[in-house]
Amino acid sequence: MTSTVNIKNEALKNGLIWGAVNIVLFLATWYLAPSLMSSYAYAAITILIGIAFAIFFCIDMRKKVGGYWTFGEALWPIFVTFVLAMGIVFVFNIVFGKYIDPSYPEKMKEMVLTKTESTMKSFGLSDEEISKAMDKTHENVEQQFSPNFSQAIVGFGISAVMYFIGALIFALIFKRSNPNPFDNPAQNNTEGN
């Protein structure tokens, strides 16, 4: 019996799981400790969780295709996993702020602006420098938390490019060449059964 894995389906499943976990983390933080949302600790935790998921899913997918895959074979499943997880969260955040909790964008803007101003003051910037920087930050925060349609599309596109670069890096890290070029992974799967 030959064991075949549809790596495209695995990538989609992994992206859905990762996106769902990010949404649960977001909702738990928003409703239990919203002040954490603008903190560096929350950003660091979400980055570490993201890296852990990326590593786990890359290793898991490589194992499911027989333990070996080239850079090209690794790139697209990794990118699909990454971009689907990001896309789910991206769309959820917009829907959440528009329909589920309309106070979310305003509260987040206020928290980010307060945190930014506090950070700038701690660096000893002059009032004029802070004022200029806060104007720019206000514009960026407005686009981030209350984007119009074109800003949302551009934001998604920029994020997708960044995730593609991440997928390139992970594909380079997790590619593994088969030391026996005549080895047939499907045959090995049948021998183990």
UniProtKB/TrEMBL annotation:
Keywords: Membrane, Transmembrane, Transmembrane helix. Signal peptide: none annotated. Pfam families: DUF4199 (PF13858). The keyword Nucleotide-binding does not apply. The chain crosses the membrane at residues 12-33, 39-59, 71-96, 152-174. This is DUF4199 domain-containing protein. It comes from Pedobacter chitinilyticus.
